[in-house]
Amino acid sequence: MPHAPFIIASFAVTGVFMTWLIVSSYLSMRRAEASADALREQS
């Protein structure tokens, strides 16, 4: 049984989840910065 399909699949799954992690972290950072700006302007 060749190992290549499993290796390719693992790289694909890792790539998808790493992309999801980066995007979700970026969006969370943007929300936190917006919240901090709102607090700064409020006081």
From TrEMBL:
Membrane topology annotation: Single-pass membrane protein
Listed GO biological process terms: cytochrome complex assembly; heme transport
Primary location: membrane
Transmembrane segments: 6-27
Compartments in which it is found: Cell inner membrane
UniProtKB keywords: Cell inner membrane, Cell membrane, Cytochrome c-type biogenesis, Membrane, Transmembrane, Transmembrane helix, Transport
GO CC annotation: plasma membrane
Family per record: Belongs to the CcmD/CycX/HelD family.
Main function: Required for the export of heme to the periplasm for the biogenesis of c-type cytochromes.
The name this protein goes by in its record: Heme exporter protein D
